[in-house]
UniProtKB/TrEMBL annotation:
This is ribonuclease T2. Rnase which modulates cell survival under stress conditions. Released from the vacuole to the cytoplasm during stress to promote tRNA and rRNA cleavage and to activate separately a downstream pathway that promotes cell death. Involved in cell size, vacuolar morphology and growth at high temperatures and high salt concentration. GO terms for molecular function: ribonuclease T2 activity; RNA binding. It is an enzyme of class 4 (lyase). The active site is at H104, E172, H176. GO terms for cellular component: extracellular region; vacuolar lumen.
Length: 296
């Protein structure tokens, strides 16, 4: 089992998703101005005229879940060699999602580490709105919708009530997307359609996720899900940093088992079209020195 895996998310976003440009205004004037800076790196206040090109909550985090199988964790911790070996033999990968982390969201912290939430209620989705229809039909994004259904999956860790994946998408945009000033409707020239910014937020989250294939990063260092051993947390973090400009990546655990990864960035320009520069994690890991990486 530990030597065979699917390679997923292998097409860089720059080649795949950027084919269809985001319909926001150009930031060229900002980049040529004396105010040009990455988020959290400015030394003077940014004029309102450039608000669509500079995020005030400028630490951007692409966050991912590893929704491991709790029953397999119990077997791994049982110290029953025969049971562990049997479970390893019988485990099969029938879907590439089993060998992929999944999307949690795209978050924006202030430069001091605090964060805004639900900043603009008029821009939020209402529970009564049909996101399937909005994404797939109204904005003609069936491929985006199908990818989200497969790789943006709700679980207990998200703390989103009623458990559905579409509820997670709604929650993530309402909580975080509405707080991104470069996503405001005023940043979309021409005729703006309600929820246009939200659909492009979803596109961007998927694009960033495809550029950060955590499972493949770990596999490249010989780190695979298994019941037979634990890994050093430092080895996990080194493997991820090697693929994130040697910047520290947040690793989250529950019951000593990897279940979340957060990649931190500063941003140059708009959330949709800007340059995401890797940044050391500002969060404290919730993992012990040796961790389980349990199959899904």
């Amino acid at each position: 089992y530990t030597t065979a895996y699917y390679v997923v998310n292998e097409v860089p976003a720059s080649q795949a998703d950027q084919v269809h440009a985001y319909p926001v205004g150009s930031c060229d004037a900002f980049f040529k101005s004396p105010y040009d800076a990455f988020s959290c790196q400015n030394t003077t206040a940014i004029p309102d005229a450039y608000s669509c090109c500079f995020e005030t909550s400028g630490i951007l985090m692409q966050t991912q879940f590893w929704d491991f199988d709790q029953k397999l964790l119990a077997i791994a911790k049982s110290n029953d060699t025969a049971l562990i070996e049997q479970a390893e033999r019988e485990y099969t990968v029938s879907d590439p999602v089993q060998n992929s982390f999944t999307i949690h969201g795209l978050w924006n912290d202030f430069c001091n580490g605090s964060y805004p939430t639900n900043c603009n209620p008029p821009l939020e989705f209402a529970d009564t709105e049909n996101l399937t229809q909005i994404i797939r039909d109204e904005f003609n994004q069936p491929e985006l919708y199908e990818y989200m259904i497969k790789y943006w999956v709700n679980n207990e860790k998200s703390n989103v009530p009623n458990g559905g994946s579409i509820a997670l998408w709604e929650h993530e945009y309402n909580k975080h997307g509405t707080c991104m000033n470069t996503l405001l409707p005023s940043c979309f020239p021409g005729t703006y359609s309600r929820h246009e910014n939200a659909v492009h937020y979803f596109r961007k989250v998927v694009e960033l996720f495809k550029d950060l294939p955590t499972y493949n990063f770990l596999a490249g260092a010989g780190i695979y899900p298994t019941l037979t051993k634990q890994y050093k947390l430092t080895d996990i973090k080194d493997a991820l940093a090697a693929n994130h400009d040697n910047k520290l990546v947040y690793v989250g655990c529950i019951n000593g088992t990897i279940d979340e990864i957060w990649y931190y960035h500063h941003l140059h320009g708009s959330v949709l079209t800007g340059d995401y520069r890797p940044l050391d994690s500002t969060g404290n890991d919730t993992c012990p020195e040796h961790v389980w990486y349990i199959p899904k």
